[in-house]
Design brief:
The chain has helices spanning 18-37, 42-58, 66-78, 80-87, 96-102, 107-127, 129-133, 144-147, 155-176, 178-199, 211-224, 240-246, 259-276, 284-304, 306-321, 323-334, 338-351, 356-368, 372-388, 392-404, 412-424, 428-441, 446-461, 466-477, 487-511; strands at residues 4-8, 229-236, 251-258. By secondary structure, it is mainly alpha-helical. A three-stranded antiparallel beta sheet has the order 1-2-3. α2 runs antiparallel to α6 and α22 runs antiparallel to α23. The radius of gyration is 30 Å and the shape is elongated.
Length: 512
Amino acid sequence: MLPIPIKHENMAARRWPVITLSLIAINTVVFLFTTFSSTDTSEQRRELSADIILLAAQHPEVKLQEEEQRVVDSFQKRKPQMWEQVQNPNRPAINAFDAKIRKMNDPDALQAEMDRLHTEFAQLKASSFEEQYAFVPAHPKPISYLTANFLHGGWEHLIGNMWFLWLAGFVLEDVWGRPLYTAFYLIAGVAALQIHAWTNSASLVPTLGASGAVAALMGAFLVRFPKMKIEMLWVLWFSIIKLLRTGNPFRYFRFKAAAYWLLPLWLLQEILFGSISGNDGVAHWAHVGGFLFGALAALAIQYSGIEQKANKAIEQEIAWTNDTEVEQASQMMEQGQLSEAQLVLAGYVSKNPNSLDAWALLRQIYSRQSDSNAYLDATVRTCSLHLRAHEVEAAFQDYAEFIDGGGGKLPASNWLELCKGAEEIQEFDRAFSEYMELAQSYPTERQSLTAQLSAARLCVKKLNRPEEALSIYEAAAKSPVPHLDWDQIIQAGIKEAKAALSTSNAAAARAQ
């Protein structure tokens, strides 16, 4: 069984992910409606299609209506060898209908048989919700570019898509804002289906599901959060030893992996399956197309400045909704009612923990009350919120005030995010020094090892200091922090640093 994602490092948002939750709700309601109120005719359609193909193969003189001709042409294109076998008059009969038509010689009776099949096929199609609203590559309806994204073929199909939609969607909604995120999702679904149509132009197999749009979210997630760690769960179903010992045949393994290598592996898997699997019932090229569309669109959004504008609008909206209580507390502070203001703000942040304005006012109160511990805790909070809003310089200002206030060292997780923020604004020297200081300050914490590896990576990739990178990687290999899951990364880093050092030494020798 393949591993499945269960969470990632950023499972929080500034606002309720209304659009993501709405999309999940719509998909679920549509699935329930189509499952319990529509007649399941898929098996009947398959049987009728098979009969049409058998009759057309054995008696090519029979005239076909447009719909039946599409069925036959699609079968010929997708399965040419099987079509030749079906045409063979000496093969054994496949079913009772096949045996019946092989005994018929009257052209009128054969045509009447085909006309009967046409009538039944048309009636089934008219009553099928899937046929009306799913996406058929050979003759797509305009409405199906939208509706197909909200149809699913079963509970597993629905749950899988909705889980991936939740994990990738709510964080993108948080940084892009609701209008941009909604437009992206709907356009991505259209793009994924169109790419599927280009790669399967003759297919009459209805395509449905949100997986193309969800794949686009995954591509955007890779561009937007390439270093975010995703926690994976791997369930092994058949553990005989564990079954004998505990009566439970399952074994569970958890591991974390960065998006920048986990998601490309998924993409390569889809490309491979799409290339070799043929018509296996999964729209692999819709997944590939959606993923690539999402990645390119996310790059455009990031570098066009649209995301920054959306973030600013979100912050303004949050601040506007906070005006009443925050303004009340601000007025109390002006009148010297610090304790009363503190009570108002403490109650407010307990319900709205991501309000930057409220935490900033609390900092002021704690400073005026000389409550150094509370002041430092609130400063850590504002630093984290500034980073979440991608206001890195403001976060570093909080960090400086934390140090000036006697804070000593930031909590390891917050410090690590600050280091990543420095990388985000391409201040690599600052990021390197903070990573190293973090590693030295928390030598037994998991974040220490993460900081060492990040610092070594910067030395190789950005700072051209391979000798220092090699030293850091070797120190990481000896770290007291358990790191069996990172051994391959460390060894690969050592190898890369040695290669870069060799190249650097060779260049220096040539220069002499």
